[in-house]
Amino acid sequence: MSSSPSITSITSTSDAEKLEPLEDFRLFTCPSTVRNREYWWGLEAGEIDFDACFNKVSVRGDIARLLSDYALTLVPSREVLDIMLEHARFNQKHHLSERRRCFDVLPIQPYTYRLIPGSENKQIPLFAFDADPRTFQRFDHPYNDLPSFTLDCYPFHAVIHSDRVASYEPVYNYAILDIARLWKSKYPDTGSFALDPYKAKLVAEYEAILHGWVPQPEDVSDWYGDDESSDSDFSIEDLSNTLQRSTVASNAANVVMWRKSVPPGGPLLLESFIASDLKDGSLDVSESRMSVS
Description:
disordered C terminus, alpha+beta, 35% helix
């Protein structure tokens, strides 16, 4: 191979006939942790965009699966990780208005990454495909000879993925796990973070349920960021199971299930929720029921 391979040339096969097309892999995809990240990254609530171009990396389909399965991960340079760790420590010690924005510390621009094994790696080899003259260069686990890649994805998003991989390389693990620990700590309920928009959205939708709205599969996906719901096999029991992680959501699901089971002419159960915004930014939810013949 005449020059350093690009990330789009990397594959897990040495058969040119089995090469898979390119696709975008999203690095940060978990809505339930987005508020913590926004606070400790120095951003405002609601500012993270999962569809941002710098939250994606273009790779072949088999590599996207290996990333998704945590068999591979992309890590920025140690210099960049040191800057991120210093930024996380700074924001831990300062008030909301004194936080440093991540984009001011590390601007949106290309950064250098290494592709390294993750905890689910089965020590498979990787290959770099050269279209002319259709040859493959092999890189054995742990890919120490694989060159670095200059990519447009943002280091903060990349570390979100790396945190869940438990890399084989301690030099990266130490910095990444320290950064992730700080990002996961509880943030103060203040300013734009006083009322989590995620919770506010849930409460609004529960009120809609009480007025007769029946959630659809895509609504369940919206609540929990779970893309595995299927229109074909969705049932109200699936909704209940999916919503068990939230007490209020579970109650709301029970309302829907109860209404589905009421025989014609049967009694109507009226159930209401009252959500109060407390001073510390949390929600106090009370429930009342009334059976009407």
